[in-house]
Amino acid sequence: MSTSNFQKSNHVSIIVKTAACSRLFLLALIIFWRSLFEPYDTSAPLNPNCLSLESQSAETVLWPRIGSAIEGSIVWDAVYFVRIAQCGYEYEQSYAFLPLLPICISFLSRTVFAPLGPLIGHRAVLGLSGYLLNNIAFVLAAIYFYKLSAIILKDKEAAFRTSILFCFNPASIFYSSIYSESLYALFSLGGVYHIISGSNNIAVLWFALSGSARSNGVLNAGYFCFQTMHEAYQAIFLKKHAYQLSMQVLFVGALRCLCIFVPFVAFQAYGYYNICLGHSPDEMSPWCKARVPLVYNYLQSHYWIQISCSMGVGFLRYFQLKQLPNFLLASPILSLALCSIIHYVKLQPEIFFSLGFQASPEEKNSAAVLFPLGVDKRSKNDQFSEKSIPKTQEKNHNLRRRKQLQGEASAASPIGNESSSARPGYSSAFVLPCVLHLGFMAATAFFVMHVQVSTRFLSASPPLYWFASYLMVSPEAGRRWGYLIWAYSTAYILLGSLLFSNFYPFT
């Protein structure tokens, strides 16, 4: 085994151990805070019978205290996820929670953890399944994050630092609870890794699964929109067979994006079928009569208004004086997002404002999976000398790029190497689609959403950690920024685990 491969293997091993230890630490904090303080809302253990069951006899369990402790830790959105896993979608407001996590919880509780039912009770088994599932998903997400960072940054030490930062991110409490953040992070980061490795079909599947975990997973279609935009542009300027090739590129790109949207759209159709069909217009919920009946949008603007006692979601609706504490709570993550975007713009203004079209040939070649056509330096006659179909060309090209990227990741050098005009590290053209994705999500969180959700909403965005990683080792004030970033993460981990686990509001 080469030194580079040994270093990568060692890094992965350390990241797995760090991610696992960070999850155990969060779970220990939850137990610790629960033992010290009484929860604000004591209704979490209440579990009325499922509507589909007329009556349900009381369970007799052997370890009631353990079961009660697990059930008591099911708070906030976890109550909905566990209830859906147990009883299905019973009420209209439950359709605000997408089905991937409840399906996985239900499957684990009926298979792997089924023998624990007589010991701790069915609802406790559901809770235990959710905890185990999300914490394992987080460890896998950390591994994917390292592999993704190693390819994009071409700097293994920086990739290692970013992965460690991710293991102790400020939204950590949600990754160790029964929330959908862990599954979303796993499939989003895994999808980006597969698309830059040339495995587009696998990336489509992973992005579609991310959209089954959280609604913002559909935004990952933007990566394929970016890739398709550049493929179509290059195809048009290849002149020969330009129309046929560009149409094929656009069709394939649109089909991939459609596949990513399918799970989310199918779930909306499922909600319409269960809630709207078979009712008279007077009995229908208002959203059923809309021109485009989307249950998710209605629930976000109707039920969550009542829950948050605010003006609800919508452009600038949250800009009220009484929401100032929530803006302050979200200010660190939003500031970090803004600084990371501005820093990239300063490093690569032409690439950013041209959406990558002004990138040099060397920079495009270093990110050839995202700029796949037009990086070949052969003449146009050579490019079309072989009458192979475009699909085969794309497949062979992706295979070559995957091997090249793996080689580059294995031979990754520190950021200081400036021998090539293709910039490595955070200034790489590879980073551009991730920065654009982060910019859209940050703007949505600030102007449209309940702003306090920003911490967990943006917590799986790679540029935050890439920028923070390089900031921590900057020669001017690296140590000061390092202390500040770690203090921020530590404070939010401690505060979040205290408030969240005791049913107090936190992001």
Outline the structure in words.
It is a single chain. The protein is mainly α and 507 residues long. The protein is 64% helix and 0% strand. The chain has 22 helices and no strands. Helix 3 packs across helix 6, helix 6 (122-153) packs across helix 18 and helix 14 (324-347) runs antiparallel to helix 19.
Fraction in beta strands? under 5%
* Head-to-tail CA distance between termini: 46 Å
Class from helix and strand fractions: mainly alpha
Overall, the morphology is globular
Indicate the low-confidence ranges by residue numbers.
Answer: 305-311, 373-392, 408-420
Write the layout of secondary structure elements.
Layout: H1 3-36, H2 64-72, H3 77-87, H4 100-110, H5 117-120, H6 122-153, H7 156-167, H8 172-175, H9 181-196, H10 200-213, H11 221-236, H12 242-275, H13 295-308, H14 324-347, H15 349-353, H16 361-366, H17 380-383, H18 390-410, H19 432-447, H20 454-457, H21 462-472, H22 478-501
